[in-house]
């Protein structure tokens, strides 16, 4: 049997109000998994096995989620067990604490520091280890990093002494953008380890 067959009935929703959602949809599809955009509250009527919250601008995404009346809905879905993967701004949206910033969904026991590498020179590329996956390419764009984690949070990647990937139950965050690299390994990790 091919690797793809076990993904046959899997569907991933990608939050598509702002930011790099198209790139996530492409990555999920590259793995042979169905992906669809979530733009409104009613899009949650479709069944899904996991949710991706993309990078972009966390303040803008947070405001749109409030304006569209989606913030509580998404928080409830996650609290009721929907697996979630947040990248960059998505990490900030999921964090329970944000240094000098606003908390949005607040469902992961991490403290995020926004624009942690500086606003202008904060973009870089590196290849580093991701626990359980190996060395992968990582693209950082005005990225946050994690300054504190709770007891139940597993640290998956540390770059230059800073936590850049973590997992708590079926909630995964990366401060880098795996959707902007050649590799599909982090998406595969999310789908295989957290959604199936
Ligand atoms: N590439 C990104 O998602 C950047 C995140 C952005 N700096 C924020 O605070 O929302």
UniProtKB/TrEMBL annotation:
<protein>
    <recommendedName>
        <fullName>Pyridoxal 5'-phosphate synthase subunit PdxT</fullName>
        <ecNumber>4.3.3.6</ecNumber>
        <ecNumber>3.5.1.2</ecNumber>
    </recommendedName>
</protein>
<comment type="similarity">
    <text>Belongs to the glutaminase PdxT/SNO family.</text>
</comment>
<dbReference type="Pfam" id="PF01174">
    <property type="entry name" value="SNO"/>
</dbReference>
<dbReference type="GO" id="GO:1903600">
    <property type="term" value="C:glutaminase complex"/>
</dbReference>
<feature type="binding site">
    <location>
        <position position="114"/>
    </location>
    <ligand>
        <name>L-glutamine</name>
    </ligand>
</feature>
<feature type="binding site">
    <location>
        <begin position="56"/>
        <end position="58"/>
    </location>
    <ligand>
        <name>L-glutamine</name>
    </ligand>
</feature>
<dbReference type="GO" id="GO:0036381">
    <property type="term" value="F:pyridoxal 5'-phosphate synthase (glutamine hydrolysing) activity"/>
</dbReference>
<dbReference type="InterPro" id="IPR029062">
    <property type="entry name" value="Class_I_gatase-like"/>
</dbReference>
<dbReference type="InterPro" id="IPR002161">
    <property type="entry name" value="PdxT/SNO"/>
</dbReference>
<dbReference type="GO" id="GO:0005829">
    <property type="term" value="C:cytosol"/>
</dbReference>
<dbReference type="GO" id="GO:0006543">
    <property type="term" value="P:L-glutamine catabolic process"/>
</dbReference>
<feature type="active site" description="Charge relay system">
    <location>
        <position position="177"/>
    </location>
</feature>
<keyword id="KW-0378">Hydrolase</keyword>
<dbReference type="GO" id="GO:0042823">
    <property type="term" value="P:pyridoxal phosphate biosynthetic process"/>
</dbReference>
<comment type="function">
    <text>Catalyzes the hydrolysis of glutamine to glutamate and ammonia as part of the biosynthesis of pyridoxal 5'-phosphate. The resulting ammonia molecule is channeled to the active site of PdxS.</text>
</comment>
<feature type="binding site">
    <location>
        <begin position="141"/>
        <end position="142"/>
    </location>
    <ligand>
        <name>L-glutamine</name>
    </ligand>
</feature>
<dbReference type="GO" id="GO:0004359">
    <property type="term" value="F:glutaminase activity"/>
</dbReference>
<comment type="pathway">
    <text>Cofactor biosynthesis; pyridoxal 5'-phosphate biosynthesis.</text>
</comment>
<dbReference type="InterPro" id="IPR021196">
    <property type="entry name" value="PdxT/SNO_CS"/>
</dbReference>
<feature type="active site" description="Charge relay system">
    <location>
        <position position="179"/>
    </location>
</feature>
<keyword id="KW-0456">Lyase</keyword>
<feature type="active site" description="Nucleophile">
    <location>
        <position position="88"/>
    </location>
</feature>
<comment type="subunit">
    <text>In the presence of PdxS, forms a dodecamer of heterodimers. Only shows activity in the heterodimer.</text>
</comment>
<keyword id="KW-0663">Pyridoxal phosphate</keyword>
<dbReference type="GO" id="GO:0008614">
    <property type="term" value="P:pyridoxine metabolic process"/>
</dbReference>
<keyword id="KW-0315">Glutamine amidotransferase</keyword>
């Amino acid at each position: 049997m091919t690797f793809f067959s076990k993904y046959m009935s899997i569907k991933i929703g990608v939050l598509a109000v702002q930011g790099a959602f198209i790139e996530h949809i492409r990555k999920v599809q590259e793995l042979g998994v169905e992906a669809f955009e979530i733009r409104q509250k009613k899009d949650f009527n479709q069944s899904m096995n996991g949710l991706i919250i993309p990078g972009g601008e966390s303040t803008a995404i947070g405001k749109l989620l409030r304006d569209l009346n989606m913030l509580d809905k998404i928080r409830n879905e996650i609290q009721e067990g929907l697996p979630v993967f947040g990248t960059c701004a998505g990490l900030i949206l999921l964090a329970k604490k944000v240094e000098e910033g606003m908390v949005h969904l607040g469902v992961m026991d991490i403290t995020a520091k926004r624009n942690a590498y500086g606003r202008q020179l904060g973009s870089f590329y590196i290849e580093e280890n991701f626990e359980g996956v190996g060395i992968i390419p990582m693209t950082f764009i005005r990225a946050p990093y994690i300054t504190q984690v709770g007891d139940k949070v597993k640290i998956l990647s540390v770059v230059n002494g800073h936590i850049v990937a973590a997992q708590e139950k079926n909630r995964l965050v990366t401060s880098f953008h795996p959707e902007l690299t050649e590799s599909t390994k982090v998406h595969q990790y999310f789908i295989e380890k957290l959604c199936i």
